[in-house]
């Protein structure tokens, strides 16, 4: 597969065109917003929390396929998880997105075993200027999680 | 189409390849590539003439000063300035526009005064006016666009009255390529006491400009967008405006006398050139206008007009591609903004880059215009004298591949 086809995998284009959990939450929730000023990409999310578990999530935003697909896949991945699990996921995602191959926690023998669909974003590593696109949702999630922990 | 392809040999960077393919550089609206004549002029200055300018008692400093002032003469003459001391060297067009906003606007605007802008301005011709409006109580008024992306002048009579003190207009949009209505606004301002400030960052590199015929009060432009070095640009002004204008920066070089509590300024243009100026860059700027003069600005304009026409024709062959800008190549320059289907501009730019085609994507420092067009981002291809029809063909092929990658083909 060419680097381009690896970057724009089917699952990424699907999340870009049909983002999951799009909208906003009505009940009590925490809200966080992120912006990449250099490119104008925007991302925001609402988290509904019970105890230390994320029970629902809603996302908003506009931008490139990588930033929006990353947010949609992230939303899918965090529902039902507790704070510690989500923080572990953020850590693994960031390691996966670093340019140094040796840090990648993803197991090439078992695709999807570590980060599920999110592993499709590995193709971004070959395009260093686009890593910040993939990271926008996760920076925003980090903010939201800090707010949720402060409320807990 | 005029064949300027022989000039390409003057631009060393155009020899670069990416993944085995020749670089197709289509981002000249952001910055242009440099011919060897400019690179060598800067190099020769540092090797043979480098010293600080003005007031040096030794011959080397006199030579540096001559080189610097000769560059001023060349650049002033390039835009048809009656005198070379009407040309102030600045860090670029942005600084030039800020100098007018702070040095002229801040001292003359008050509550109820108006600054008239167009919606297609670059941030550098909006933000300084916003700051000055806030400080003075003046009001910003914008002219919108018509269906052909031209500034809509039907509103002019309604918004143009004695309250308008400054008109700030782009000579050419860096997004749509549309030419700004400089002549019409100069005519409207005539006799009202309003001054006209032209952002020439995209105009001066791409067409013959004669400030005497233009009739504007100020013209700002940047060297790096016209084959010259970064870090230098120019503000041209009418003599009486430059005399009226206060310096924005104080320091060495810009004074005739300094006392304990106040100082007297050096004559124009030096009162606006505080500190050691970008000397080598000025020399490179001079070499750049020499180069453009040799090619001829009419030739540059005609070449770009033909290339833009060809680009608009080829882009029309790409399904789902929408161009944001005038169709008539007589009313526009060579910056072509577009969207492709539902593919975000950054994704388009990434795919094009994989094909060795360099374009810009985003809001192009013109967010009010992007909101006006209801588009968060566009991809933009922009041309200069070194681009060829083959570059346009490579762009078109890469765009067709973008459709394939995104499953549109």
Q: Which short descriptors sum up this protein?
A:
heterodimer; A: 152 residues; alpha+beta; Sufe protein. Chain: A; three-stranded antiparallel β-sheet; 5 helices; 3 strands; 41% helix; B: 409 residues; alpha/beta; seven-stranded mixed β-sheet; four-stranded antiparallel β-sheet; 13 helices; globular
Structural description of this entry:
Chain A is of the alpha+beta class. Chain A has a single domain, classed as Alpha-Beta Complex (Sufe protein. Chain: A). Chain A is 41% helix and 18% strand. Chain A has 5 helices and 3 strands, in the order ααβββααα. Chain A has a 3-stranded antiparallel beta sheet, with helices on one face. In chain A, α2 packs across α3, α3 packs parallel to α5 and α4 packs antiparallel against α5 (131-151). The termini of chain A are far apart. The mean pLDDT of chain A is 93. By secondary structure, chain B is an alpha/beta fold. Chain B has helices at residues 36-49, 59-78, 93-108, 127-136, 156-159, 182-189, 211-214, 239-244, 279-295, 297-315, 345-354, 367-372, 389-405; strands spanning 17-18, 21-22, 24-25, 87-90, 114-118, 139-143, 164-170, 195-199, 218-222, 233-237, 255-258, 263-265, 321-324, 335-340, 357-358, 360-362, 378-382. In chain B, the strands form 5 sheets. Chain B has a 7-stranded mixed beta sheet with strand order 4-10-9-8-7-5-6, with helices on both faces. Chain B is globular, with a radius of gyration of 22 Å. Chains A and B meet through α1 and α2 of A and α11 of B.
SSE order and pairing:
The complex is a heterodimer of chains A (152) and B (409).
Chain A: H1 3-7, H2 10-17, E1 30-36, E2 41-50, E3 53-62, H3 65-78, H4 83-97, H5 131-151
Antiparallel strand pairs in A: 1-2, 2-3
Helix pairs in contact in A: 2-3, 3-5, 4-5
Chain B: E1 17-18, E2 21-22, E3 24-25, H1 36-49, H2 59-78, E4 87-90, H3 93-108, E5 114-118, H4 127-136, E6 139-143, H5 156-159, E7 164-170, H6 182-189, E8 195-199, H7 211-214, E9 218-222, E10 233-237, H8 239-244, E11 255-258, E12 263-265, H9 279-295, H10 297-315, E13 321-324, E14 335-340, H11 345-354, E15 357-358, E16 360-362, H12 367-372, E17 378-382, H13 389-405
Parallel strand pairs in B: 3-15, 5-6, 5-7, 7-8, 8-9
Antiparallel strand pairs in B: 1-2, 4-10, 9-10, 11-12, 13-14, 14-17, 16-17
Helix pairs in contact in B: 1-9, 2-9, 3-4, 10-13, 11-13
